[in-house]
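## tool: complex_structure
## caller: assistant
## args:
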Amino acid sequence: MLRVTPQRQAILALINRSNVHWDAEELARELVQSGQAVGIATVYRGLSALEGAGLIASVQLGDRKRYERIDKSHHDHLVCTECGSLEEFVQPEIERLQAQVAEEKGFRMLNHQLLLFGICYACDNHDSNQDLDKGKKI
Amino acid sequence: MLRVTPQRQAILALINRSNVHWDAEELARELVQSGQAVGIATVYRGLSALEGAGLIASVQLGDRKRYERIDKSHHDHLVCTECGSLEEFVQPEIERLQAQVAEEKGFRMLNHQLLLFGICYACDNHDSNQDLDKGKKI
DNA sequence: ATGCTAATGATAGTCATTATCACTATCAGT
DNA sequence: ACTGATAGTGATAATGACTATCATTAGCAT
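## result:
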Protein backbone atom coordinates (compact mmCIF):
# COMPACT_ATOMS: atom_id res chain seq x y z
CA MET A 1 0.00 0.00 0.00
CA LEU A 2 2.80 2.40 0.82
CA ARG A 3 4.30 3.43 -2.49
CA VAL A 4 7.85 4.47 -3.12
CA THR A 5 7.91 7.79 -4.93
CA PRO A 6 10.76 10.14 -5.86
CA GLN A 7 9.33 12.73 -3.47
CA ARG A 8 9.41 10.36 -0.51
CA GLN A 9 12.85 9.11 -1.44
CA ALA A 10 14.10 12.69 -1.50
CA ILE A 11 12.56 13.40 1.90
CA LEU A 12 13.91 10.21 3.42
CA ALA A 13 17.38 10.73 1.96
CA LEU A 14 17.58 14.26 3.32
CA ILE A 15 16.55 13.22 6.81
CA ASN A 16 18.84 10.21 6.89
CA ARG A 17 21.78 12.19 5.60
CA SER A 18 22.16 14.36 8.71
CA ASN A 19 21.41 14.77 12.38
CA VAL A 20 19.18 17.75 11.65
CA HIS A 21 15.72 17.84 13.21
CA TRP A 22 13.61 19.01 10.28
CA ASP A 23 10.16 20.46 10.23
CA ALA A 24 7.99 20.30 7.12
CA GLU A 25 8.65 23.88 5.96
CA GLU A 26 12.41 23.66 6.38
CA LEU A 27 12.46 20.36 4.53
CA ALA A 28 10.41 21.77 1.65
CA ARG A 29 12.72 24.79 1.42
CA GLU A 30 15.79 22.56 1.35
CA LEU A 31 14.28 20.34 -1.34
CA VAL A 32 13.60 23.39 -3.49
CA GLN A 33 17.22 24.49 -3.13
CA SER A 34 18.51 21.08 -4.11
CA GLY A 35 16.42 21.17 -7.26
CA GLN A 36 13.88 18.53 -6.27
CA ALA A 37 11.00 20.76 -5.20
CA VAL A 38 8.18 18.90 -3.50
CA GLY A 39 4.74 20.37 -2.80
CA ILE A 40 4.23 21.33 0.82
CA ALA A 41 1.20 19.07 1.18
CA THR A 42 3.24 16.19 -0.18
CA VAL A 43 5.98 16.91 2.34
CA TYR A 44 3.47 16.71 5.18
CA ARG A 45 1.96 13.49 3.83
CA GLY A 46 5.35 12.01 3.08
CA LEU A 47 6.64 12.71 6.57
CA SER A 48 3.54 11.18 8.08
CA ALA A 49 3.78 8.10 5.87
CA LEU A 50 7.49 7.61 6.53
CA GLU A 51 6.92 7.91 10.24
CA GLY A 52 4.06 5.44 10.04
CA ALA A 53 6.34 3.02 8.23
CA GLY A 54 8.91 3.35 11.01
CA LEU A 55 11.52 4.89 8.72
CA ILE A 56 11.83 8.20 10.52
CA ALA A 57 10.91 9.49 13.97
CA SER A 58 9.30 12.68 15.20
CA VAL A 59 9.44 15.02 18.17
CA GLN A 60 6.50 17.25 18.97
CA LEU A 61 7.79 20.64 20.06
CA GLY A 62 5.12 23.13 21.05
CA ASP A 63 3.19 23.83 17.89
CA ARG A 64 5.79 22.37 15.56
CA LYS A 65 6.60 18.76 14.73
CA ARG A 66 10.19 17.96 13.83
CA TYR A 67 11.46 14.79 12.17
CA GLU A 68 14.75 12.98 12.58
CA ARG A 69 16.45 9.83 11.35
CA ILE A 70 15.94 6.60 13.26
CA ASP A 71 18.87 5.49 15.37
CA LYS A 72 19.56 2.04 16.54
CA SER A 73 18.79 3.36 20.03
CA HIS A 74 15.88 5.38 21.27
CA HIS A 75 16.85 8.74 22.69
CA ASP A 76 15.23 11.77 24.32
CA HIS A 77 15.90 15.47 23.89
CA LEU A 78 17.30 18.53 25.61
CA VAL A 79 15.53 21.54 24.11
CA CYS A 80 17.23 24.92 24.34
CA THR A 81 14.58 27.62 24.74
CA GLU A 82 17.10 30.26 23.69
CA CYS A 83 18.35 29.01 20.33
CA GLY A 84 15.88 26.20 19.63
CA SER A 85 18.58 23.58 19.33
CA LEU A 86 17.87 19.95 20.11
CA GLU A 87 20.44 17.78 21.79
CA GLU A 88 19.93 14.05 22.15
CA PHE A 89 20.59 11.85 25.14
CA VAL A 90 20.13 8.24 26.14
CA GLN A 91 19.34 7.10 29.64
CA PRO A 92 18.37 3.42 29.80
CA GLU A 93 17.51 3.62 33.48
CA ILE A 94 14.88 6.29 32.80
CA GLU A 95 13.46 4.09 30.05
CA ARG A 96 13.26 1.16 32.42
CA LEU A 97 11.54 3.20 35.13
CA GLN A 98 9.00 4.50 32.64
CA ALA A 99 8.06 0.99 31.62
CA GLN A 100 7.79 0.07 35.27
CA VAL A 101 5.42 2.96 36.03
CA ALA A 102 3.17 2.02 33.10
CA GLU A 103 3.20 -1.60 34.19
CA GLU A 104 2.13 -0.67 37.70
CA LYS A 105 -0.76 1.43 36.43
CA GLY A 106 -2.02 -1.28 34.07
CA PHE A 107 -1.20 1.07 31.20
CA ARG A 108 -0.10 -0.43 27.88
CA MET A 109 2.63 2.02 26.90
CA LEU A 110 3.20 2.31 23.15
CA ASN A 111 5.42 5.33 23.04
CA HIS A 112 6.81 8.12 25.12
CA GLN A 113 8.33 11.54 24.88
CA LEU A 114 10.68 13.18 27.34
CA LEU A 115 11.75 16.76 26.79
CA LEU A 116 14.09 18.66 29.09
CA PHE A 117 13.71 22.39 28.52
CA GLY A 118 16.37 24.88 29.49
CA ILE A 119 19.46 26.75 28.35
CA CYS A 120 22.12 24.86 26.44
CA TYR A 121 25.80 25.18 27.26
CA ALA A 122 26.53 27.46 24.30
CA CYS A 123 23.74 29.91 25.09
CA ASP A 124 24.45 29.87 28.80
CA ASN A 125 28.06 30.88 28.24
CA HIS A 126 27.68 33.36 25.40
CA ASP A 127 24.49 35.17 26.25
CA SER A 128 26.21 38.52 25.80
CA ASN A 129 26.23 37.69 22.10
CA GLN A 130 23.39 39.80 20.71
CA ASP A 131 22.99 37.59 17.67
CA LEU A 132 21.59 34.85 19.80
CA ASP A 133 18.57 37.02 20.52
CA LYS A 134 17.44 36.31 16.98
CA GLY A 135 17.26 32.62 17.72
CA LYS A 136 13.85 31.05 17.52
CA LYS A 137 12.10 30.54 20.82
CA ILE A 138 10.26 27.31 21.48
CA MET B 1 0.70 44.26 37.66
CA LEU B 2 -1.34 41.11 37.63
CA ARG B 3 -4.88 42.15 38.42
CA VAL B 4 -7.51 40.03 40.06
CA THR B 5 -10.65 39.98 37.97
CA PRO B 6 -13.88 37.98 38.28
CA GLN B 7 -13.03 36.19 35.05
CA ARG B 8 -9.67 35.00 36.32
CA GLN B 9 -11.14 34.05 39.66
CA ALA B 10 -13.76 31.96 37.87
CA ILE B 11 -11.10 30.24 35.76
CA LEU B 12 -8.85 29.59 38.73
CA ALA B 13 -11.70 28.32 40.87
CA LEU B 14 -12.86 25.89 38.20
CA ILE B 15 -9.37 24.48 37.70
CA ASN B 16 -8.62 24.18 41.40
CA ARG B 17 -11.97 22.55 42.09
CA SER B 18 -11.20 19.33 40.24
CA ASN B 19 -8.55 17.05 38.81
CA VAL B 20 -9.74 17.79 35.28
CA HIS B 21 -7.17 18.76 32.69
CA TRP B 22 -8.93 21.63 30.93
CA ASP B 23 -8.19 23.20 27.61
CA ALA B 24 -9.30 26.75 26.82
CA GLU B 25 -12.39 25.79 24.81
CA GLU B 26 -13.68 23.33 27.37
CA LEU B 27 -13.14 25.83 30.14
CA ALA B 28 -15.01 28.55 28.22
CA ARG B 29 -17.91 26.17 27.57
CA GLU B 30 -18.07 25.19 31.24
CA LEU B 31 -18.02 28.82 32.34
CA VAL B 32 -20.92 29.61 30.01
CA GLN B 33 -22.91 26.72 31.50
CA SER B 34 -22.24 27.92 35.03
CA GLY B 35 -23.56 31.36 34.13
CA GLN B 36 -20.24 33.21 34.23
CA ALA B 37 -19.49 33.38 30.53
CA VAL B 38 -15.98 34.62 29.75
CA GLY B 39 -14.76 35.64 26.29
CA ILE B 40 -12.56 33.05 24.65
CA ALA B 41 -9.68 35.51 24.26
CA THR B 42 -9.92 36.30 27.96
CA VAL B 43 -9.80 32.61 28.79
CA TYR B 44 -6.58 32.21 26.80
CA ARG B 45 -5.05 35.30 28.40
CA GLY B 46 -6.27 34.34 31.85
CA LEU B 47 -4.81 30.84 31.59
CA SER B 48 -1.50 32.24 30.41
CA ALA B 49 -1.42 34.82 33.21
CA LEU B 50 -2.34 32.29 35.89
CA GLU B 51 0.32 29.93 34.65
CA GLY B 52 2.85 32.75 34.62
CA ALA B 53 1.94 33.55 38.19
CA GLY B 54 2.52 29.94 39.17
CA LEU B 55 -1.11 29.37 40.16
CA ILE B 56 -1.84 26.66 37.63
CA ALA B 57 0.22 24.32 35.48
CA SER B 58 0.00 23.20 31.88
CA VAL B 59 0.68 20.13 29.77
CA GLN B 60 1.28 20.47 26.04
CA LEU B 61 -0.50 17.64 24.24
CA GLY B 62 -0.06 17.60 20.49
CA ASP B 63 -1.74 20.75 19.25
CA ARG B 64 -3.66 21.42 22.43
CA LYS B 65 -2.54 22.86 25.74
CA ARG B 66 -4.32 21.62 28.86
CA TYR B 67 -4.25 23.22 32.29
CA GLU B 68 -4.41 21.63 35.72
CA ARG B 69 -4.23 22.66 39.35
CA ILE B 70 -0.84 22.86 41.03
CA ASP B 71 -0.04 20.05 43.39
CA LYS B 72 2.48 20.12 46.12
CA SER B 73 4.46 17.64 44.02
CA HIS B 74 5.49 17.67 40.40
CA HIS B 75 4.06 14.84 38.39
CA ASP B 76 4.12 13.50 34.84
CA HIS B 77 1.38 12.00 32.68
CA LEU B 78 0.13 8.82 31.11
CA VAL B 79 -1.84 9.79 28.02
CA CYS B 80 -4.43 7.38 26.67
CA THR B 81 -4.51 7.66 22.88
CA GLU B 82 -7.90 5.92 22.82
CA CYS B 83 -10.00 8.07 25.13
CA GLY B 84 -7.71 11.06 25.63
CA SER B 85 -7.64 10.66 29.40
CA LEU B 86 -4.67 11.86 31.43
CA GLU B 87 -3.43 9.95 34.43
CA GLU B 88 -0.79 11.40 36.71
CA PHE B 89 2.22 9.71 38.22
CA VAL B 90 5.21 10.59 40.34
CA GLN B 91 8.60 8.95 40.01
CA PRO B 92 11.30 10.79 41.98
CA GLU B 93 14.05 8.57 40.61
CA ILE B 94 13.23 9.61 37.05
CA GLU B 95 13.31 13.25 38.15
CA ARG B 96 16.71 12.74 39.72
CA LEU B 97 18.12 11.04 36.63
CA GLN B 98 16.84 13.84 34.41
CA ALA B 99 18.64 16.44 36.50
CA GLN B 100 21.75 14.30 36.33
CA VAL B 101 21.64 14.06 32.53
CA ALA B 102 21.23 17.84 32.21
CA GLU B 103 24.09 18.38 34.62
CA GLU B 104 26.39 16.11 32.64
CA LYS B 105 25.60 17.96 29.40
CA GLY B 106 26.17 21.39 30.90
CA PHE B 107 22.52 22.10 30.26
CA ARG B 108 20.68 24.43 32.64
CA MET B 109 17.33 22.63 32.92
CA LEU B 110 14.42 24.90 33.74
CA ASN B 111 11.56 22.56 33.09
CA HIS B 112 10.67 19.21 31.66
CA GLN B 113 7.81 17.21 30.25
CA LEU B 114 7.43 13.46 30.24
CA LEU B 115 4.48 11.90 28.45
CA LEU B 116 3.85 8.17 28.26
CA PHE B 117 1.46 7.40 25.41
CA GLY B 118 -0.55 4.21 25.24
CA ILE B 119 -3.80 2.51 26.13
CA CYS B 120 -5.20 3.02 29.62
CA TYR B 121 -6.50 0.15 31.69
CA ALA B 122 -10.14 0.98 31.05
CA CYS B 123 -9.77 1.15 27.27
CA ASP B 124 -7.56 -1.92 27.13
CA ASN B 125 -10.17 -4.02 28.89
CA HIS B 126 -13.33 -2.71 27.24
CA ASP B 127 -12.26 -2.18 23.68
CA SER B 128 -15.19 -4.21 22.41
CA ASN B 129 -17.30 -1.24 23.46
CA GLN B 130 -18.03 0.54 20.19
CA ASP B 131 -18.69 3.84 21.94
CA LEU B 132 -15.04 4.18 22.75
CA ASP B 133 -14.31 4.60 19.07
CA LYS B 134 -15.78 8.06 19.37
CA GLY B 135 -13.17 9.03 21.92
CA LYS B 136 -10.89 11.82 20.90
CA LYS B 137 -7.49 10.75 19.65
CA ILE B 138 -4.41 12.60 20.77
C1' DA C 1 -12.41 59.73 44.45
C1' DT C 2 -9.19 59.86 40.54
C1' DG C 3 -6.31 58.50 37.06
C1' DC C 4 -3.07 55.27 35.19
C1' DT C 5 -3.05 51.32 32.86
C1' DA C 6 -4.12 46.35 32.76
C1' DA C 7 -8.07 43.55 31.42
C1' DT C 8 -12.02 42.51 28.68
C1' DG C 9 -14.41 40.85 24.59
C1' DA C 10 -15.73 40.92 19.83
C1' DT C 11 -13.50 39.97 15.92
C1' DA C 12 -9.79 39.81 12.52
C1' DG C 13 -5.49 37.73 11.74
C1' DT C 14 -1.80 34.15 11.97
C1' DC C 15 0.23 29.91 11.20
C1' DA C 16 0.89 24.98 11.13
C1' DT C 17 -1.45 21.38 9.43
C1' DT C 18 -5.21 18.84 6.87
C1' DA C 19 -8.86 18.29 3.30
C1' DT C 20 -10.27 18.66 -1.44
C1' DC C 21 -9.94 17.51 -6.07
C1' DA C 22 -8.35 16.99 -10.65
C1' DC C 23 -4.67 14.80 -12.45
C1' DT C 24 -0.57 11.57 -12.45
C1' DA C 25 2.23 7.59 -11.31
C1' DT C 26 3.00 3.10 -9.10
C1' DC C 27 2.49 -1.64 -9.23
C1' DA C 28 -0.05 -6.17 -9.30
C1' DG C 29 -2.13 -9.10 -12.41
C1' DT C 30 -2.77 -10.35 -16.87
C1' DA D 1 4.63 -4.41 -21.88
C1' DC D 2 -0.40 -3.15 -21.03
C1' DT D 3 -3.81 -1.78 -17.99
C1' DG D 4 -6.80 -0.99 -14.32
C1' DA D 5 -7.22 -0.12 -9.46
C1' DT D 6 -5.78 2.97 -6.41
C1' DA D 7 -2.19 5.59 -3.89
C1' DG D 8 0.31 9.87 -4.54
C1' DT D 9 0.89 14.63 -6.07
C1' DG D 10 0.35 19.59 -5.82
C1' DA D 11 -2.22 23.86 -5.93
C1' DT D 12 -5.21 25.79 -3.02
C1' DA D 13 -9.10 26.09 0.25
C1' DA D 14 -10.30 24.98 4.81
C1' DT D 15 -9.53 24.08 9.64
C1' DG D 16 -8.47 24.95 14.23
C1' DA D 17 -5.86 26.58 18.01
C1' DC D 18 -4.19 30.52 19.39
C1' DT D 19 -2.75 35.73 19.21
C1' DA D 20 -3.25 40.67 17.91
C1' DT D 21 -6.13 44.69 17.60
C1' DC D 22 -8.75 48.18 19.57
C1' DA D 23 -12.44 50.56 21.70
C1' DT D 24 -14.33 50.17 26.12
C1' DT D 25 -14.32 48.79 31.05
C1' DA D 26 -12.59 48.25 35.53
C1' DG D 27 -8.60 47.14 39.28
C1' DC D 28 -5.99 49.39 42.43
C1' DA D 29 -2.18 52.73 43.95
C1' DT D 30 -2.17 57.32 45.32
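## assistant note: The longest helix of chain B spans residues 40-52. Chain B touches chain A through 33 residues (CB under 8 Å). Handing back to user.
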